Amino acid sequence: MKGQSGMDATELYAAKLTSAAEAVAPISTGETVSAGMAIGQPPALLAALGERLRSDDLKSIRFYYKIGMQPISESLLVEGVREKIDPHCFFLSGTEHQIIKDQQQTGRKVMSFVPVHFSDLPRLFKEIIDLDTFLVTVSPMDGGGYFSLGTNNDFASTAARHCKRLIVEVNENMPRVFGQSQIHVSEVASIVENNVPLIEAGVAETSEAGRAIGTLIAPLVPNGATIQLGIGRVPSGVAEALSNHQDLGIHTELFSPSMSDLIQKGVVTGRKKTLHPFKHVFTVAFGTKESYAFMNDNAAFESYPSSYVNDIRVISQHDHFTSINTAIEIDLYGQVNAEFIGEHEYSGSGGQYDFVKGASLSKGGKSIIALQSTARKGTLSTIVPKVAMVTDPRMDVEYVCTEHGIVNLRGKSTKERAEALISIAHPDFRDELTAAAQRVTLI
Question: Which residue of 13, 30, 47, 344 has the fewest C-beta atoms within 10 A of its own C-beta?
Answer without folding.
Answer: 30
